Amino acid sequence: MNEEQLEFIKALDEYKRVNNRPFPTWTEVLDMVLYLGYRKVAPVGEFKLSKGRQHPRKDRPRE
């Protein structure tokens, strides 16, 4: 887990605790992400998981 992921998890845990919201809505999560400083800076592209977080392909032969 990298530093940004840890910061996000801590912020989400704090939000849930302070607002008594064990299951925040996606709108609340987006508000929290924006509060952390994240902004859209590029056009929408193909989604790819970050290196080390990729799932094995189902069609890849097992080793």
Strand content: under 5%
Radius of gyration, taken over Cα atoms and rounded to an integer in Å: 16 Å
Q: Classify the oligomer.
A: single chain
**Helical residue percent?**
40-55%
> In this structure, how is the largest beta sheet organized?
none
SSE ordering: HH
Identify low-pLDDT runs: none
Shape: globular
Q: Please, how many helices?
A: 2
Total beta strand runs: 0
Q: State the separation between the terminal residues, measured CA to CA.
A: 26 Å
| Rounded average pLDDT | 83
Q: Tell me the structural class.
A: mainly alpha
Architecture blueprint of SSEs:
Elements: H1 3-18, H2 26-35
Characteristic terms for this protein:
single chain; 63 residues; mainly alpha; globular
